[in-house]
Amino acid sequence: MAEEKKGLKYGLAASVLLNIILLAGVAWALTHPKVVEKPAPAGPAPTVTVTVTATKTVTPTAPAAPAGIIEYPIGLAIAVSGPYAVEGPYRRDAALLAIEHVNKMLEAAGSPIRFKPIHEDSKGTAEGAIAALEALAAAGVKVVVGPLSSKEVRAVKSFADAHKIVCISPSSTAPGLAVPDDYIFRVVQTDVAQAKALAQVVAELGYTKVAIIGRDDDYGRGIADMFEKLFTEKYGGTVKKLMYTPDLPDYSTEVQRLAEMVSDLGADEKTAVLIIAFDADGLNILGHARLNPVLSKVRWFGSESLKRPTFIPPKAPAEIGEFVVSVKLTGLFPSPERNPVTEFFEKEYRSKYGKDPTPYSYYAYDAAWLACLSVLAAGKYDGEAVKKVLPTVAEKYIGASGYKKLDENGDCAGSDYRIWTVVVEAGEYKFKEVGVWSFATEKVSFFG
Asked: How far apart are CA 382 and CA 375, in angstroms?
C-alpha cells in the first residue's frame, strides 16, 4: 500500500491531465492490446515487447521485461557530445527521469504497460542527428524526444515525416521550422517572441545602437534578423550584424571585427552588444572580448542559449565570470510561472542526480512525459496515431515548464520570458531573474 501511494504521487505531480486524458488512455491501452503480434502460448502470461535494443545506445541495458509487461520504446535523440557535451547530459537525464516517473505511476496503477528509453547521441550535428534517428528507427522506435537544436531538427525532418516518427524537441526554436501537419513538435515557442522581447528590453533600458555577433545558422539568423527588423523599425535603433561560421577553432578575427563595429557605433552609453552563441563558440568569443578595451566598456546582452552553467564559474574560467558580470550580461529565457510540477521535478532531479537541472531540462522532462502520455492516449504504438492525438494531450497538460498547448505548427503556443543577468552573491556566480516580459501583453516589468 505504501508503494502504491508513492507511485500515485508521480501521477498527481504530472498535471491535471491525469484526470482527463491519462486514465482514458490507459484504459484504452489496457482494453485494446493491439501490440500483441501473435497468440499467447499456453501457460504463464507472456512477455510482450515491440522493440529491440539499438546497437549504439548509451543507455544502460535493461533486463528483459517481466512476464505480462507490455513495453514501448521512447527514443532519445539527444546530443551529449560536441556543442552539447556540457548541457546535453542534463536534458537527457531529465527525459530519463520523466520516463521513470511515468513507469512508477503505471506500476502503482497496476498497469502492464512500461516505457523503455533508448538513447542515441545526435552529437549536435546534422549528420549525427540523421544517424541517431536512423538507428532509432531500426530499433522500431516511433516516438522520439529530440533532437535538441534547430540544425538537427531540420536535418531529420524529411526522414521523420517519411517514416512517420514523431519527434518532440525540447529546445529547437528557429522560426523557419514552424510547419503545419508534420511529425515535428516543439515544446518551446519559436524565437519570434524572444527577438521581440529582446528588442523591447534593450530599447527600454536606453540603448539605441546594437552590434550583433551571432551564429550563422537557423538559430542565430532567426533571432538576429528578427531583432534587427524590430529594433530598427519599431524602436528607431541602429544595428550592425556579424554572423560567424559555427564550429571554428577560434574567433579572434571575428571579435576584432566586432570591436570595430562597436567603435563605429560610438562605443558609448547608448551602445550594446548582442551575442547569439552556443557553448564552445560563446566561451571563445567571450574569452577574446574580455581582453578588448572597446568591448569591455559597453553593455552586453545574450540570447537564451547564454543561460547555461557553461558561461559562469565554476564551469567557466573565473576571468569569463568577471567579464560577464562587469558588462552586465543580460538575456531572457522562456519561463512561465512556477507550479507544483516545477517544484516536484526540481526536487526529484536533485535527489537523483545530485545537481540542479539546467533551464532546458524542464522542457526535456515535459517532452518525455508528452511522448509517453500520447502513446497511452493513442491506444497503440503507432507514429501516425500519436501525431494525431499529441496536440490534444498537450492542450490538457501542465508540466515542469508550464502549459504546453501547441499552435497550428505543433510548437508551444506561447510563454512569458524571464529577464536574467549574471551576478555574484555570497561568492557564487548566479543567473538572477530581474524582470519579466509578458507574452500576453508584451509588457516589460522589472523587479524591485
From this structure: 8
